[in-house]
UniProtKB/TrEMBL annotation:
Domain HTH tetR-type: start-end pairs: 4-64
GO molecular function, one term: DNA-binding transcription factor activity
Provenance organism: Streptomyces microflavus
UniProt KW keywords: DNA-binding, Transcription, Transcription regulation
Lineage of producing organism: Bacteria, Bacillati, Actinomycetota, Actinomycetes, Kitasatosporales
Protein name as annotated: TetR family transcriptional regulator
Translocase is among the record's keywords: no
PANTHER family in the cross-refs: HTH-TYPE TRANSCRIPTIONAL REGULATOR BETI, HTH-TYPE TRANSCRIPTIONAL REGULATOR RUTR
Length: 196
């Protein structure tokens, strides 16, 4: 028996199941079984599958939210910061896409998931909001053009990272044509060319 604390085992099991069979098909019963505990023990730590999903995103995947939350205008170069964001975002979406894609196949399940996540201050809009706030702060510092649409820029960068995960996940081998570091650097450079 694994000697990790029950909460850690539950989050690990949820992560593995969500990656392998998708969020829609993962149940709390299966998570508890894989974690070697009862469903009652799972509910001691988590209100349900939605809270577990948000926990997996925060604790087991590349730390996109943390990176975006830690950005400060005037620190580092804007291009370097955008490159770091693009790299982490591409990895984040590469792992979240297989987990969440199954929700879109079942509208009722998607609605239930949205309701469950609604009160958890989580969602796919938050990284865009955080990146927009960073770019507006850089705009205020004079490092991004005053007339630049920072929301559009944030949406473009993160959308390109999400699209990279989506587009190549369907291909045999799932390998994008451009290495991650090259993709992140060229995306940041191209975006910056339009806003600085």
């Amino acid at each position: 028996m694994d000697q990790k604390p029950a909460r850690v085992r539950i989050v690990d099991a949820a992560h593995e199941l969500m990656l392998s069979i998708g969020l829609a098909r993962t149940t709390t019963k299966e998570i508890a079984k894989a974690a070697g505990c009862s469903e009652a023990a799972l509910y001691k730590y988590f209100s349900g599958k939605e809270e577990l999903f948000v926990t997996v995103l925060a604790e087991r995947l590349p730390r996109l939210g943390n990176l975006l939350g830690d950005l400060r205008a005037g620190e580092g170069s804007v291009e370097g910061n955008l490159t770091d964001i693009a790299r982490v975002a591409a990895l984040f979406y590469e792992q979240t896409f297989p987990m969440a894609a199954s929700l879109y196949a079942e509208p009722q399940l998607k609605r239930r998931h949205e309701e469950g996540v609604g009160g958890l201050e989580a969602g796919p809009h938050l990284p865009i909001r955080q990146l927009d706030a960073y770019l507006r702060a850089e705009q205020g510092a004079g490092r991004v053009r005053a007339d630049a649409d920072t929301y559009a820029a944030a949406s473009l960068l993160l959308g390109a990272c999400a699209q990279r995960a989506f587009a190549y996940a369907a291909l045999p081998g799932g390998e994008p044509p451009q290495p991650l570091d090259d993709f992140a650097a060229s995306l940041a450079r191209t975006l910056l060319g339009g806003i600085s």
